[in-house]
Automatic annotation (TrEMBL):
Residues 68-87 are annotated as: Disordered. Pfam families: Flg_bb_rod, Flg_bbr_C. It comes from Aquabacterium olei. The basal body constitutes a major portion of the flagellar organelle and consists of four rings (L,P,S, and M) mounted on a central rod. The rod consists of about 26 subunits of FlgG in the distal portion, and FlgB, FlgC and FlgF are thought to build up the proximal portion of the rod with about 6 subunits each. PROSITE patterns: FLAGELLA_BB_ROD (PS00588). This is Flagellar basal-body rod protein FlgC. Residues 88-132 form the Flagellar basal-body/hook protein C-terminal domain. Its main location: other. One of its GO terms (biological process) is bacterial-type flagellum-dependent swarming motility. It comes from the Bacteria. The keyword Ion transport does not apply. Belongs to the flagella basal body rod proteins family. Keywords: Bacterial flagellum, Cell projection, Cilium, Flagellum. The keyword Ribonucleoprotein does not apply.
Amino acid sequence: MSMFNIFNVSGSAVSAQSQRLNVVASNLANADTVAGPDGQSYKARHVVFTTAAMGSVGAAGVTVSNVTEDNSPGRRVHDPRHPQADAEGYVTYSNVNAVEEMVNMISASRSYQNNIEVMTTTKTLLMKTLQMGQGS
Protein backbone atom coordinates (compact mmCIF):
# COMPACT_ATOMS: atom_id res chain seq x y z
CA MET A 1 0.00 0.00 0.00
CA SER A 2 1.28 3.44 -0.90
CA MET A 3 1.82 5.92 1.89
CA PHE A 4 -0.56 8.24 0.05
CA ASN A 5 -3.40 5.70 0.41
CA ILE A 6 -3.13 6.18 4.17
CA PHE A 7 -4.47 9.71 3.67
CA ASN A 8 -7.47 8.32 1.76
CA VAL A 9 -8.22 5.70 4.41
CA SER A 10 -7.83 8.05 7.38
CA GLY A 11 -9.63 10.83 5.54
CA SER A 12 -12.64 8.59 4.96
CA ALA A 13 -12.69 7.71 8.66
CA VAL A 14 -12.45 11.38 9.67
CA SER A 15 -15.38 12.20 7.39
CA ALA A 16 -17.47 9.31 8.75
CA GLN A 17 -16.72 10.21 12.38
CA SER A 18 -17.62 13.82 11.64
CA GLN A 19 -21.05 12.69 10.43
CA ARG A 20 -21.39 10.50 13.51
CA LEU A 21 -20.63 13.50 15.75
CA ASN A 22 -23.27 15.56 13.94
CA VAL A 23 -25.89 12.86 14.51
CA VAL A 24 -24.94 12.57 18.19
CA ALA A 25 -25.19 16.36 18.57
CA SER A 26 -28.66 16.28 17.03
CA ASN A 27 -29.71 13.47 19.37
CA LEU A 28 -28.43 15.32 22.43
CA ALA A 29 -30.12 18.55 21.35
CA ASN A 30 -33.44 16.69 21.20
CA ALA A 31 -33.02 14.49 24.29
CA ASP A 32 -35.68 16.28 26.34
CA THR A 33 -38.11 17.22 23.61
CA VAL A 34 -41.73 16.16 23.91
CA ALA A 35 -44.12 14.85 21.31
CA GLY A 36 -45.35 17.44 18.86
CA PRO A 37 -48.94 18.16 17.88
CA ASP A 38 -48.93 15.05 15.69
CA GLY A 39 -48.23 12.90 18.76
CA GLN A 40 -44.82 11.83 17.46
CA SER A 41 -41.71 12.49 19.51
CA TYR A 42 -38.15 12.81 18.25
CA LYS A 43 -36.54 9.44 17.50
CA ALA A 44 -32.84 8.90 18.16
CA ARG A 45 -30.72 8.42 15.06
CA HIS A 46 -27.70 6.18 14.60
CA VAL A 47 -25.01 6.12 11.92
CA VAL A 48 -24.30 2.87 10.05
CA PHE A 49 -20.79 2.45 8.64
CA THR A 50 -19.68 0.27 5.73
CA THR A 51 -16.32 -0.59 4.25
CA ALA A 52 -15.41 1.32 1.10
CA ALA A 53 -12.66 0.50 -1.40
CA MET A 54 -9.94 3.15 -1.52
CA GLY A 55 -7.88 3.10 -4.69
CA SER A 56 -6.90 0.11 -6.77
CA VAL A 57 -4.42 -1.43 -4.33
CA GLY A 58 -7.01 -3.06 -2.11
CA ALA A 59 -7.00 -0.48 0.67
CA ALA A 60 -10.30 -0.16 2.50
CA GLY A 61 -11.77 2.87 4.18
CA VAL A 62 -15.09 3.61 5.78
CA THR A 63 -18.20 5.45 4.68
CA VAL A 64 -21.58 6.21 6.18
CA SER A 65 -24.09 3.97 4.41
CA ASN A 66 -27.17 5.01 6.31
CA VAL A 67 -28.56 6.97 9.22
CA THR A 68 -31.26 4.92 10.92
CA GLU A 69 -33.98 5.88 13.36
CA ASP A 70 -34.37 4.06 16.65
CA ASN A 71 -37.99 2.87 16.74
CA SER A 72 -38.08 2.07 20.44
CA PRO A 73 -40.87 3.87 22.29
CA GLY A 74 -40.25 7.26 23.83
CA ARG A 75 -40.02 7.84 27.54
CA ARG A 76 -43.47 8.43 29.08
CA VAL A 77 -43.76 10.60 32.17
CA HIS A 78 -46.97 11.15 34.12
CA ASP A 79 -47.51 14.90 34.30
CA PRO A 80 -51.20 15.78 33.82
CA ARG A 81 -50.49 19.53 34.13
CA HIS A 82 -48.11 19.56 31.15
CA PRO A 83 -49.66 21.18 28.06
CA GLN A 84 -48.54 18.24 25.88
CA ALA A 85 -50.04 15.58 28.17
CA ASP A 86 -52.32 13.01 26.55
CA ALA A 87 -55.79 12.01 27.81
CA GLU A 88 -54.24 9.76 30.48
CA GLY A 89 -51.93 12.55 31.72
CA TYR A 90 -48.72 11.17 30.20
CA VAL A 91 -46.15 13.19 28.27
CA THR A 92 -44.08 11.33 25.69
CA TYR A 93 -40.45 12.40 25.48
CA SER A 94 -37.87 11.37 22.89
CA ASN A 95 -36.22 7.96 23.12
CA VAL A 96 -32.73 9.49 23.30
CA ASN A 97 -30.59 8.12 26.13
CA ALA A 98 -28.28 11.03 27.00
CA VAL A 99 -25.71 8.81 28.74
CA GLU A 100 -25.38 6.50 25.72
CA GLU A 101 -25.10 9.51 23.44
CA MET A 102 -22.32 11.02 25.55
CA VAL A 103 -20.40 7.73 25.38
CA ASN A 104 -20.99 7.65 21.62
CA MET A 105 -19.73 11.23 21.35
CA ILE A 106 -16.54 10.46 23.27
CA SER A 107 -15.92 7.38 21.13
CA ALA A 108 -16.47 9.28 17.86
CA SER A 109 -14.30 12.16 19.05
CA ARG A 110 -11.42 9.83 19.94
CA SER A 111 -11.70 8.00 16.63
CA TYR A 112 -11.62 11.35 14.84
CA GLN A 113 -8.54 12.44 16.80
CA ASN A 114 -6.76 9.13 16.20
CA ASN A 115 -7.26 9.37 12.46
CA ILE A 116 -5.97 12.95 12.43
CA GLU A 117 -2.90 11.69 14.30
CA VAL A 118 -2.41 8.93 11.69
CA MET A 119 -2.46 11.55 8.93
CA THR A 120 -0.05 13.81 10.83
CA THR A 121 2.37 10.94 11.45
CA THR A 122 2.19 9.88 7.80
CA LYS A 123 2.90 13.43 6.68
CA THR A 124 5.91 13.60 9.01
CA LEU A 125 7.25 10.28 7.68
CA LEU A 126 6.82 11.42 4.08
CA MET A 127 8.63 14.71 4.82
CA LYS A 128 11.52 12.84 6.45
CA THR A 129 11.71 10.49 3.47
CA LEU A 130 11.93 13.47 1.12
CA GLN A 131 14.65 15.03 3.25
CA MET A 132 16.63 11.78 3.13
CA GLY A 133 16.29 11.74 -0.66
CA GLN A 134 17.78 15.23 -0.91
CA GLY A 135 20.98 14.09 0.73
CA SER A 136 22.81 15.70 3.60
